[in-house]
Amino acid sequence: MATARLTEWGLERVADTTALIVSELVTNAIRHGAAPITLRLIRHRVLVCEVTDASDTVPRLRHARVTDECGRGLFLVSQLSSRRGTRHSPAAKTVWAEQEIDATRS
Question: In whole angstroms, what is the distance from residue 1 CA to residue 106 CA?
Answer without folding.
Answer: 26
